[in-house]
Specification:
alpha+beta, three-stranded antiparallel β-sheet, about 40% helix, elongated
Length: about 140
């Protein structure tokens, strides 16, 4: 693939989400009366904090007010109807095929589709056998 996302697409078979690891981490969570926007874990003999500060440091994302996504109207000839014929759900494989074979009219469309892929596969940890709901 001749885009900046080519490496990302080739590594999807080697990288697996592990719900068991996340579950084991959450089992070590300490319940406390400290600030409510922090999570504390006991890992070995160490207290480890996970707050907005650590989240921003690791992800390079910033916090702000979450927009109401219900307000967005469907865009005529947008990504969903253009590349997936308006079907209600899309499989990971269908999304992967579009990302690898499609000739995009607008470069930003490939970025939008990769963001959908990354959100569902990495951040939300969805199993590849499941369908991605309409966005």
């Amino acid at each position: 693939m001749a885009s900046c996302f080519g490496h990302f697409m080739s590594m999807h078979r080697r990288m697996k989400f592990s719900g068991a690891v996340i579950h084991r981490l959450l089992l070590r969570e300490l319940h406390h009366n400290w600030p409510t926007n922090e999570m504390w874990f006991l890992l070995g003999n160490h207290l480890v904090r996970c707050s907005k500060v650590e989240f921003c440091f690791i992800t390079r994302l910033r916090f702000r007010v979450v927009p109401d996504t219900c307000l967005y109207a469907a865009v005529e000839n947008g990504i969903h109807p253009r590349y997936f014929s308006g079907v209600d759900e899309v499989s990971f494989e269908e999304l992967r095929v579009v990302l690898t074979l499609e000739k995009f009219q607008q470069a930003y469309n490939v970025v939008k589709l990769y963001l959908i892929y990354m959100l569902n596969w990495i951040l939300m940890g969805l199993d590849e056998r499941f369908k991605i709901p309409v966005w």
